[in-house]
Amino acid sequence: xxxxxxxxxxxxxxxxxxxxxxxxxxxxxxxxxxxxxxxxxxxxxxxxxxxxxxxxxxxxxxxxxxxxxxxxxxxxxxxxxxxxxxxxxxxxxxxxxxxxxxxxxxxxxxxxxxxxxxxxxxxxxxxxxxxxxxxxxxxxxxxxxxxxxxxxxxxxxxxxxxxxxxxxxxxxxx
Length: 174
Fold this sequence. Notes:
four-stranded antiparallel beta sheet, flat
């Protein structure tokens, strides 16, 4: 089912030649997909098997995620969500990339993830249209005190969602 949805998104992205107005729900859905895909690099890598390989002194586990068998599949999925530049930045981070192809299969770095920040509370999302080809997804995250009982501040992020090369993608994300 998820693969079918991914294909529909890709097919829809390929046939659009000019931007059409998007609904709040479409943009929110794209934002949720972006959060998930970005978390594969920042928080929790894609699910893996116990199969291990060593690449350049680093340990990697074989990815076990239907539809994403190798780096090309991962890149294609990310390109539905993120701009080309952002996709390449995610895939090529430093001398120790999170994902590598080993003998034609995708592997994820062991220990690449991190714990979710416990000092953060609820997240608010607002969407504004900047122009015909650009929306802005404004995200506000509550910062909590050490006891996690009081909000002591907020962090604000702005993620541009733009119509680029015939499809809607995030051009910046964190």
